[in-house]
Amino acid sequence: MRIDMVTLFPEMFAGPFGDSITKRAVENGILDIHFTNFRDFSFDKHKHVDDSPFGGGAGMVLKPEPMYRAVRDVLEKTQEFAANRRVLIMDPSGPVFTQEKAKELAKYDQLVFICGHYEGFDARIYPLADEAISIGDFVLTGGELPAMVITDAVSRMLPGVLGDEDSAPTDSFYDGLLEFPQYTRPREFEGMEVPDILLSGDHAKIREWRHQESLRMTMEKRPDLLEKKELSEKDRDFLRRISRDDS
pTM for this one? Predict the structure, then answer.
């Protein structure tokens, strides 16, 4: 997968993308990440990319001309991906990013991220993108951090990125539930013991226990997720039973 970041601050990505899983994905040729500074596409000699808003108000607004020139340059240089790419604008107006969205985006051959800064975008910039995406209902300085978060989540869905191919399906939110509790050595620590089922060697029972614990964790900590999850009758019986036990 090719990823293009259109940003004023390419250097912000060095730390998160220069380490851990993302770094290995790049080294192994699974991810190909490129950066385009849209300041390089400004018309004037001072390289201005923003201006004061029409109608007055605080802050500065990103101008449309440099962004259009930058994004179009990326698209023209990567025509081989035109049939299967997505242009994303990082913006609080978009729907909140989810694990399902990460799975969807992982199917594209190219993602182009438009990262804003300052007070916001000139409204005429939005048509450049296929869609807007937010990572939550809070204020950030720019779109770089959301772009990093989405790239990290999407890259985990790509074949070969994780050392253990079974890791992604057990992550929280992968299938709409929180992850089950995990344990490692020692077996006993300060009076807290590893559940016996995990030491039984019965993998079918371990899978069932983990699924039920995911259901339990989700009901206790994020019950809103269960409203969106398609549950089996067995799952519903389990949730009703633990609800009765807790009452």
Answer: 0.86
